Amino acid sequence: MDSLCVSLCRAFLLFVCLFTTAAESFVLSGPTERLSQRMRLPSGAGAGGGRQKTTALQGNGKKPFEELRGELETFEKLRKLDERVERLSERGTVFLSSFWCETLSSFMIAPLKSATKPSVTSTCLSVQAILENPSMWGTSVQWEDTGGEKISLRKATDTMRKVAKDADWSSAVYRFRTPYLVSTLSRMVPEGELMKDSKFQEAIDTLIEQRPHLSFHRKQTLSTYQRHKNAMALLAALESGLVVQTDPRHAELLFGVERVFTVSFDELCRQIAFWHAGDNQNFDVVMLAYSLASYVQIASHPIVKEQGRSLPPMNLKLVSRALDLLFSVQKEDGTWEKGEPIDRYVAGSQGAPPTAPPKIPHDSSAASISNPVPVPVRPPPVEVRRVVPSSPADPTAPAEEDDPTAGVRMRSSKEIGNSYVFFVDLLGEIVKALGEKEPELLAPYLENIERCVEWLEDNVLQEKSPSTKMGLVQGWRSNHLLDGGPVAWCTAQAVSSLFSVRRLLKSLLTSCILDEFGGAHAASEGANSGAWTQLLDAELSLQGSQTSLKGVLQPRLLTPMMRKMLSASASLLPREKLKDYDPICAALQSPELAASQFASSNHPPVYSLILFGPPGTAKTTICTSIAKYLGWHFVTIDTAQFLADGLGNVANRMRYIFDRLKCLEKTIILFDEIEEFCQDRENERLGMESRMLTTAMLTQLNDLRRKQKAIFIVATNRLRTFDAAVTRPGRFDMILFVGTPNLSARVSRLKGLLSNTGMSEEKKSEACALVSGFMEANWKETAEGKGGLRFLNFAESDVLLKGAVSEAVDGRLTEASLQTSFEALRETATIQGAVKEEYVSSERMSRV
To answer: pLDDT tens, 454-508?
Structure first.
């Protein structure tokens, strides 16, 4: 009988695999329009008015942004939506802060005067919301407890650690709380402390044990929502280095994440198949959404790619189909149907989830992603039923925290399965998963996202509370709860989702602008100092003293801006965690020392500067190196951009361009050779129209600087032709002369060229000494017109150095050959005659 049961189980699992494969094949084959044509709500489906969206995809599932712009709302509408989300986000930070309880050092479900225990879920979600966008919390939240009015995240973290020490990870309540605690503490507590915390390590073990089992098919122990949260918690632990690669649990942890990926992929295909089959009983929008979020986040996570087994690449066509379906069943008010409860099963007499089979070794062939069906162990027969939910305010709140005066209904831990996902969190997880990696896939659904924003705008609740400073608390409450006041965990999820939506909108706005003007996106790896390090430095005379261009830009532009970007995170986290959380620190060799250096810098951030100098002095290269160092976008605006609509429409075109530039954040904007729009208005030969254009340009530049969201640089060869109002102090933060590479930079370049040859070290040293000595001897120009090697620009200097290296390799390098090459370059040099005179007179015009 047992062998017959095993055979039947195997046959059933084979059928499931074939069904899943067929569903995937159906979804991924045929014309793209098939899904959108059939995506109609069957009668009685209960979802209302979702708009059909169809995306014509290329072979890789992605659409060029040039075509995508036609599907976006007008630029003005997109910008207005971004402004609405920004205002709502700012209000949300104030709302969430009002739930802080100083007495209990935690965020409360509602600011109840009689509360005696901290709310774990509300505190974890609130802290995570704060970490989503640290720059929004500088005035109200900090790490240290200084005894002031600011919320101390150290105190909140200590509270969560105390709760974790007394936690029963196997209980139904902590089945819900565990991923929140692991995710939050992984981000807040140094890994050295958590690695020694046996109770916290037990929590990670619990998450590993709760991984999905393929033999359970659709009767998994955890809901789709809980599987997603568990996977994100395990990834947070991996990111923080809490389980090192030499630890045997590291492979088990990765295996658990990969299992979520496999089950999520299967469920994603299955839900699409259910929908097309008209199976409304089995189709579940919550299972679709969180399977999609898990699939995307795990597939694109760098740690999984680098340290885990080789997972199939993310299928963008499948993701696009899932998004079509998800937003087609959205209701007119922006919400979705309830879907699967957060906890699918009720313990005790009401039924139990399947019992987990024996552990499958992580290196077993049965655990392979490519062969995801192990020999099943038959689970014990159980009766499983879904629970008709009530409407609690906090699915983890113990009954003794009940306070009817707050309008928040609590329930015992046995009723944990009665709560439903707040639809705002559903949207937030989808936007977070795709907003950074594939934002263009969400662009066709901006109207759907706007509905959710409208719901949040229209459903801000407020309630009197004597326990708060203002006597009033505001926020949001899940659409699945009974009537009542605002709730902390709902407000925290709303704030986090708004931050994700705003990042998406900013990404789409930035892509649209950069695409239109031919700009370059920031590198995916973030800040990178490599290009700046390789940049050749130039001499600079500043206020009577000799320095260098990089010697001024580093402490006055780069370091203050890095300090500003880092300061938001630095004030919310212990210093040991900065390298894990902030990508800026990850790009630096010594995050702790860098943070200390930034904190001690006295120079304010620079948002505007003029780089002037003769042609060929690498002004554009300097700007691109700054962008790479900061990890920012880069765009060039030249005269041709302003003349694109003709001479008669320059003023309108100028407004059009600057309206878009003002929307950019973390971008280096280079205005290249725009002298025609900055001419001296005192010049009698200048017409009225040119004077008005100069005035308009000054106004636009001033407005752009006031935004303090991007750095703009004006590069010019003719600073003297600029209007006095352009160069006066206060208009630009710095005006710097860009000359030719200095002697030490040229010697460094020479050594780099020699290092790539096959010569012996002795011959390299001899060649370096000969060429360096020649450059030093001929550096300055004599009264007789001899020398003047310093006037060779980068390209000309490179010709000289590469020629010298080539002669050194061939054994023909002599001082005479160097002199001959130098004289030939002098005859065709860029800087000679009047240009040289201008060069010398301009060297002392720099100011900061």
So the answer is: 999 999 999 887 666 667 889 999 998 888 889 999 999 999 999 999 999 999 9
Question: Is this model's pTM higher than 0.70 or not?
Answer: yes
Cα distance between residue 492 and residue 490, in whole Å: 5
Nearest to residue 535, comparing CAs of 622, 465, 426, 477?
A: 622
What's the maximum distance between 2 C-alpha atoms anywhere in the chain?
108
- C-alpha neighbours within 13 Å on the C-beta side of residue 528: 12
Query: In this predicted model, what pLDDT tens digit does every residue of 234-263 receive, in sequence order?
Result: 999 998 888 888 888 888 999 999 999 999
Residue 470 sits at the vertex; the CA angle it makes with 465 and 476, to the nearest 5 degrees, is 60
| Phi and psi, residue 90, nearest 5° | -65, -40
Q: Based on the number of CB atoms within 10 Å of its own CB, is 840 exposed (0-12), middle (13-18) or buried (19 or more)?
A: exposed
For 680, other C-beta atoms within 10 Å of its C-beta total: 17
The three-state secondary structure class of 671 is: strand
* Alpha-carbon gap, residue 744 to 110, rounded angstroms: 64
Asked if residues 693 and 639 have their Cβ atoms less than 8 Å apart, the reply is no
- Mapping DSSP to helix (H, G, I), strand (E, B) and coil, where does residue 781 land? strand
Residue 40 is encoded by which pair of tokens? 């109609």
DSSP string covering 378-412: PPPP----PPPP---S-TT--GGG-BGGGTB----
CA distances from 297 to 192, 302, 579 (A): 27, 10, 21
Provide the 3-class DSSP secondary structure of residue 726: helix
Does residue 2 have a pLDDT over 90? Answer: no
Structure tokens at 396: 């983890």
**Among candidate residues 686, 670, 674, the one with its CA nearest the CA of residue 719:** 674
Q: Angle between the 316-328 and 423-435 helix axes, to the nearest 10 degrees?
A: 150
Q: How far apart are CA 337 and CA 331, in angstroms?
A: 8
Residue with token string 């630890």: 247
The three-class DSSP label of residue 212 is coil
CB 384 within 8 A of CB 402: no
Using the CB atoms, write b or e for 760-790: b if 16+ within 10 Å: eeebbeebbebbbebbeebeebeeeeebbbb
| Rg of the chain (C-alpha set) | 32
